[in-house]
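Hi there. Long-time user, first ticket. I'm pasting a complex I've been working with (about 223 residues overall). I'd like to know whether the download I got is complete or cut off, because the file seemed smaller than I expected. Thanks.
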Amino acid sequence: AQRVTQPEKLLSVFKGAPVELKCNYSYSGSPELFWYVQYSRQRLQLLLRHISRESIKGFTADLNKGETSFHLKKPFAQEEDSAMYYCALLTGTASKLTFGTGTRLQVTL
Amino acid sequence: DGGITQSPKYLFRKEGQNVTLSCEQNLNHDAMYWYRQDPGQGLRLIYYSQIVNDFQKGDIAEGYSVSREKKESFPLTVTSAQKNPTAFYLCASMLHGAGYTEAFFGQGTRLTVV
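Hi, the file is complete. Here it is re-exported in full:
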């Protein structure tokens, strides 16, 4: 069965410090992975997708199939990055979308 | 105004009663999802539907039921068999195809059993 693991519930960093939010997945097929973000009082929204290999708001994530990981990185954290981040895995022809438990990123001055 | 709408925002239920949460989308998306969000547990998948008149159990379907009679609607019923129904419920619809995939979420319904 597919599974998404985010080992850190809370990650606290100083402004300007590098950020890495960890995500590991288990799935025997070909995965499609995402990072979603929820800012305070806002809806959950897509941040980035592994397929597009894009950088959004300075964040990047690379799919490492050997390590089954999809860690989210940003070289210099900003206050506005403080939010809840969820890693998600899309599988199968029925489009099952599974989320991890989330990591709260707290950026302090 | 396009989007996904959940109603009501807050819902109170007496123990032993069934209650139905509404989810409507006008985005013309085929796939729809229901999640339960509890502190420290992230989003857990209850049910999902790829097309009209078809749906699959997610990871925590016990005590819940759904229907998908129309493309734009995916109501969730929390039955009296659900042992711990007090939670925040999120509905989503997904655009999937032509090399692009994105899920869109509602504002959520907070259900409290009293």
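A couple of notes from our side: Chain A touches chain B at residues 6, 9, 32, 34, 36, 43-46, 49, 51, 86, 88, 90, 93-102 (CB under 8 Å). The mean pLDDT of chain A is 93.
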